[in-house]
Amino acid sequence: MSLDNEKILFTMPIALRWRDLDAFNHVNNSNFLTYLEEARIRWFDSLGEEWVTDKIAPLLAAVQINYRQPIPYPAGVVVELFAERVGNTSVTLGHRIMSEDGAILYADGHVVMVWIDRASGRPTPLPEPVRRASQG
C-alpha cells in the first residue's frame, strides 16, 4: 500500500478491543484518532532522543482523516506514518490505517504537529531528533 516516493517512518500493529466498537458493530471513528495518536507517540519515543522537555512540547495543530472503510471486529490493523512536510517549527505526518496484510485501506490522511515553547505558547524550532528522523 506504500507509495514508492514515501519513506515509512514507523509501523505499528494494533489489536482491536471489543470496547472499540460502536452500535454498528465496527470500530468507532473516534478510535481511529486514538490509534494514530498512539502510533505518533511511540514513533517519537522510538527516536531515543528528547522530543518533549520541560521547555518544549508538540501540539496537534491540524488533523485530516479520510475514512475509507469501516474496520470490522475481530481484526488486526497496522498504522503507518510517513513525513509529508518538515517545516521550521512543525512536521506534517501522513498516516494510513490498513489491514494487517495491507490489502484494505481503512483510513488515510495527515496531522500537523507544531512544537511550542511551554512558557510562551509560541512556536519553537522543531527538535533535531524529529527533524533528522522525518527527513530520513
Tell me what you see in this structure.
It is a single chain. The chain has helices at 29-46, 128-135; strands spanning 8-15, 56-67, 76-86, 90-99, 105-117. Strands 1-3-4-5-2 form a five-stranded antiparallel beta sheet. The protein is α+β, with helices and mostly antiparallel strands and 136 residues long.
How would you describe the oligomerization state of the chains in this entry?
Answer: single chain
Note the main sheet: 5 strands, antiparallel
Gyration radius, in Å: 16 Å
| Largest beta sheet: strand ordering | 1-3-4-5-2
| Helix percentage | 10-25%
Structure characteristics:
single chain; 136 residues; alpha+beta; Thiol Ester Dehydrase, Chain A; 5-stranded antiparallel beta sheet; 19% helix; elongated
Provide a brief overview of the structure.
The protein is α+β, with helices and mostly antiparallel strands. Helices cover 19% and strands 40% of the residues. It has a 5-stranded antiparallel β-sheet with strand order 1-3-4-5-2.
